[in-house]
Design a protein that fits this description.
212 residues; DNA-binding; Tetracycline Repressor, domain 2; mainly alpha; homodimer
DNA sequence: GATTTATTCATACGTATGTATTAAATGTCG
DNA sequence: CGACATTTAATACATACGTATGAATAAATC
């Protein structure tokens, strides 16, 4: 799976074959089928291996932060940090996974959609809730859009990070993380201006994807 | 090339074969080789077809804005808008191209690197210059990082935009663009805090990618 | 130590890939 | 018309793909 992570991250799902994977992992070709059954399964399991833990860490940080806040809404930067810190940490420990998750989230293979829905969406909902409490003046539509933009920034941060091989300097890591948090939080929290209203006014008749 | 744009955007370079492309374009397989020579060339030409014009538009808008400012540094939001507006417009007109450019910029195929260097980098340099004048307090490192994040946000915006098939309502378009601009500009312009200094202090010995 | 279970191995299947080739058909324009 | 460019058609080539198989080997269990 380490080899799969590296090669999938480098060349994408379709860019690498089972033979290359087997050779890179120094195992027999048949061993891959034996253990994973199919290429898709291998991809899914390789992806979820870290993605699950990553999401759990996010939720854990947020829960801890909220508990420490005693019911007060958290500052935006605090929430953002709960989102970003696990990404940065796992990304630094496993640079190839960074590229893999960037590819995967930007253009998810269809066989991963269900897993993403079950693993990622609940997570996102929790954070959306936290942001809504922290930013009551930002309309839900705008917040959703901004979260997507924040995700895009995070993905790009990930590939940049895996491009320049940071050599695990704790202070440097902290500085990069803080820059990412600052950028994102600033964009998320900026005043909605007349745009929120305008967006709402132009809203098409039937809506169905609000959290109600 | 329209078919190529759609299929490459949907499935990526390795996700689609020449036969599928030919069939989707309703031409013979040999016609593709006849006109483009190879699959890579087809991808490159399909990508550059709009990417070139997009960059030219960006530069044009920025030049016009700077001329209208009579030597004063432009407001950040203005610069960002010059960057984003062409993306949004071409993205709305050609949703498939949006996905294609997102895939391409997030994980560029090696045969495109040279073209990206020659087409995209000079463009970026110009905008970096504008931002440096507009944000003299933000260190160059931080600005570079933030621009990468902004690019990530833009890419994600593009795929979101092509996902929800906006039906070309000028007001809605303007609202979305303005939201993107606002988010990005806010992140780019936010105060660097102690982080810039910290980042500079932790800078590794040899540097070589500054604009000097 | 024998027997069952788990894992590796080399190899093979059918299909799909990108590209090239040949000849005939269709279009274009001087 | 005649010269040329384009398009179609039908393959063909070598290679790569994901997956499957059955025998050989290692581990585990009794």
């Amino acid at each position: 799976m380490d080899a799969a992570e590296r090669l999938f991250g480098e060349h994408g799902y379709n860019g690498v074959g089972m033979r290359a994977l087997a050779q890179s992992a120094k195992v027999n070709l048949a061993a891959t089928t034996y253990h994973f059954g199919s290429k898709k399964t291998l991809y899914v399991e390789t992806f979820l291996r870290r993605f699950r833990e990553l999401n759990a860490q996010r939720l854990g940080l947020l829960a801890a932060a909220e508990q420490a806040a005693h019911g007060q809404p958290l500052p935006v930067e605090r929430i953002v940090e709960c989102m970003m810190r696990p990404s940065v940490e796992v990304g630094l420990a496993h640079p190839a996974f960074n590229k893999m998750v960037a590819r995967t989230l930007l253009a998810p293979p269809k066989f991963l959609l269900e897993h993403l829905k079950s693993e990622f969406e609940p997570n996102l909902k929790v954070f959306i809730g936290a942001f809504e409490r922290a930013l009551p003046t930002v309309p839900a539509d705008v917040l959703n859009l901004r979260l997507a933009l924040a995700l895009g920034a995070t993905l790009m941060f990930g590939v940049q990070m895996s491009a320049i091989r940071i050599k695990r300097d704790a202070k440097r890591e902290a500085a990069f993380l803080k820059e990412l948090v600052r950028f994102t939080a600033s964009g998320l929290a900026c005043p909605p201006a007349t745009l929120g209203a305008e967006l709402a006014r132009l809203r098409p008749p039937a809506r169905r994807k609000r959290t109600a």
